[in-house]
Amino acid sequence: MTDTTAQNAGGLSGNVLFYSQPEPLSIEAHGKLGVKVVDKPYAFIGQTNIVPLTVTEFAPAALSYPVIFVGDSKQPVVAMGLNANDNLFVTDGEFRSDAYIPAYARRYPFVYANDDAQQRMILCIDRAAPYFVEGGDTPLFEGTEPSAYVKNAMEFCNNFEQERLRTESFVKILTDLDLFEVKEANFTPRNADGTPGQTQKLAEYFAVSEDKLKALPADKLVELRDNGALGQIYAHLVSLAGWDRLIALALTRQAAANA
User: Which InterPro entries match (predicted)?
Assistant: First the structure.
C-alpha cells in the first residue's frame, strides 16, 4: 500500500543513498513549497562513483558504464568512476550528454519510505535538496491536494519500486543458480620507454561467470531466456568492457589537470 502524504515520520525506516534529510511529504510541513530550476541539478551525485541500477536498465546503461554487482546482497550498480569520491560523468552538477542517467538518480529528490507502524509506503522528499523553496515556480500542492508535479513523481516512484522488486528477483535467480564470481578490474600503465608498468587493481566486484553460465543445463538456459534474464545477463557481460572507457576518461581528466 502506498500513500502520498503523512502526518509524522515516527514509524519510518531505512536509509537511502543521496537523501540527507528525508521527510514525509505533507500539506502541513510543505504546503508553501515549490520547485525551482537549479544550475547544478545532479550535484548530489557528483561525489560518488557508483549508483544503484534496476535490471531493466542494464541494456541502456551498458552503453555508458560497467554494470556490476556489489555487497552481500549483490546489488547491481553502475560504475561511474575509479575512486570512491570521483564521478567521471558528472561535471559541475551536470551529466555528460552522452551518458545514460539511472532511474535511481532521476527520481531524486522524491523517494518512498516504509511506514512500519501502518505497513505502507509513504512518499518523502529530501528537504535538503536545493530544488525546494517557498513560492517555487512549480508548487507541491494545489489547494489541499498534491499538484500534478507531485502526482507524476509518485507514479515514477511507484514504477521504480516495482522495478526494484523485479531486480531483487533477478539477483535471487542468479544466486540460486550460483552464477556469480568475484572479478577484478585492472589497469596496466605504460612506462616512459613503452614497456608495461606495474598492474594496478582498480576494483573488485561480483559478476556473472561466463563459464558457469555455459555449464548450465539446457532447460535452465531456456528458463533464463524465456523470463528475460538471459538478455540482461548478456547486457551486463558486454558492459564490462566499459572499464576501458572509465580508464580513458580518468587519464584524460588527469592530463587536463596537469596541463
Answer: SapC
